[in-house]
Specification:
Elements lengths: L1 H24 L2 E3 H6 L10 E8 L13 E4 L3 E5 L4 E5 L5 E4 L12 E7 L4 E5 L4 E6 L4 E6 L13 E8 L2 E6 L8 E7 L4 E6 L16 E6 L2 E6 L4 E5 L4 E8 L14 H4 L7 E4 L3 E10 L2 E9 L4 E6 L18 E2 L4 E6 L1 H10 L1 H4 L4 H4 L11 E7 L2
Parallel strand pairs: 1-18
Antiparallel strand pairs: 2-25, 3-4, 4-5, 5-6, 7-8, 8-9, 9-10, 11-12, 12-13, 13-14, 15-16, 16-17, 17-18, 19-20, 20-21, 21-22, 23-24, 24-25
């Protein structure tokens, strides 16, 4: 009996030792401390080079509010809520519109599904809890029902964000609209079969119905998929086999509780919103919002080599000390590690008007952007992390 108890205790201590060893190896990004001790950050701290590309402007391809970039090897996808436009990467020429907003056959409700870089298929959100799949040549391929989808107010069960695990598997999170959603994440295949469900352990009764978006972020790096939920400091790597802690973003006093999903607008002003991570081989950057002092907008950079985290206020972009042109904040990254963002024509015109002397020292290709018109499409900016 004594021998058995000793064995059990030994096993327990050994397991605890390995858990401690594992937790010590897990990177911890101390955001709470970095927030309290902000740094000055410039693009040259982490960016190697910057290129600018004019996108063709015609009545057929006008880019309206809140555009997002999906940068591919040969193409550029610019999406807004109701348009998805394809441009040639080399020349910036407009090629075609992908899909069409509307309620007709093959027409979508929203562009905010996802693009699968592994299969080059765009998944638009349909009107009936489904995806509409399009190829880059503009052809409608098929419709795919989203499993477990329920759009009723009595028993809502609706995903918020989607991404890919591979060319055959899709990952999504679920909004906890009425506090009773029992699913957190779901993996399903391109035939609509559920492969894996991760349960939601935050069932909260008697709360007011609230649709909350952007509380979970997905990102890709090194052929792996990662996620984080806004109330949890841990970023996880996910596959069909397991969910593994990847790093910890220690937000300390800035981390919102799960109940913040149902807070009113005034109270929500004091919570940190979910970051979107742009990860490369050496650096991981992200911007986030938090009403703190005079700035609700911050930028953070983590150097994987030195294991150091810096945070800076980010009102109008990170200081551009590489080419002396406009300050920038990159919004997306592709599978090849290329960063991208857009500069609106009115912002560029304003910069040239306010920086007449400074603009004279710009490279000729940047000075050529001076002739941009107010009605022109945005300028695409592409950059690479330092190696």
């Amino acid at each position: 009996m004594r021998s058995k108890s000793f064995f059990s205790l030994g096993t327990y201590l050994l397991a605890g030792f390995f858990n401690l060893l594992y937790s010590q190896q897990l990177p911890v990004l101390d955001l709470a401390t970095a927030m309290d001790h902000p740094s000055k950050i410039a693009l040259s701290d982490f960016i190697e080079d910057i290129t600018y590309l004019r996108l063709e402007t015609t009545p057929e391809c006008l880019i309206n509010r809140n555009p997002e970039v999906i940068l591919l090897k040969d193409y550029i996808i610019i999406r807004t809520s109701q348009k998805c436009l394809l441009f040639d990467r080399k020349s910036g020429a407009f090629l075609r519109e992908l899909g069409l907003y509307g309620k007709g056959p093959g027409e979508f409700r929203s562009t905010y599904g996802f693009f699968d870089e592994t299969s080059s298929i765009y998944y638009f959100i349909g009107w009936n809890g489904n995806f509409l799949k399009y190829s880059l040549d503009g052809k409608f391929l098929s419709s795919l029902d989203i499993p477990s989808y329920s759009g009723t107010l009595e028993n809502p069960s609706m995903p918020d964000r989607y991404t890919y695990l591979n060319s055959n598997l899709i990952l999504c999170n679920f909004m906890n609209i009425n506090g009773l959603e029992n699913k957190s994440l779901m993996i399903f295949d391109t035939k609509g079969k559920i492969i894996k469900t991760i349960p939601n352990r935050h069932i909260i009764k008697n709360v007011k119905t609230s649709i909350n978006t952007g509380t979970t972020s997905f990102h890709h790096f090194n052929n792996s998929t990662f996620f984080q939920e806004f109330y949890n400091d841990t970023v996880f790597m996910i596959s069909t086999e397991k969910t593994t802690p990847y790093f910890i973003l220690n937000r300390g006093k800035y981390r919102p509780p799960y109940e913040a999903l149902w807070w009113d607008f005034e109270k929500r002003k004091n919570i940190m919103y979910q970051p979107i991570y742009l990860e490369g081989a050496k650096y991981l950057t992200f911007e986030f919002y938090y009403v703190f002092g005079n700035s609700p907008h911050f930028f953070a950079i983590y150097d994987k080599t030195s294991k150091s985290l810096k945070v800076s206020e980010n009102v109008s972009g990170i200081k551009n000390d590489i080419d002396g042109f406009m300050d920038l904040t990159f919004k997306s990254i592709n599978a090849s590690g290329e960063l991208s963002c857009l500069i609106q024509s009115q912002d560029m015109i304003k910069w040239f008007d306010n920086n007449k002397d400074k603009s004279k020292s710009l490279k000729p290709e940047l000075q050529a952007l001076r002739n941009i018109n107010l009605s022109d499409n945005p300028i695409l900016v592409i950059a690479n992390y330092k190696r």
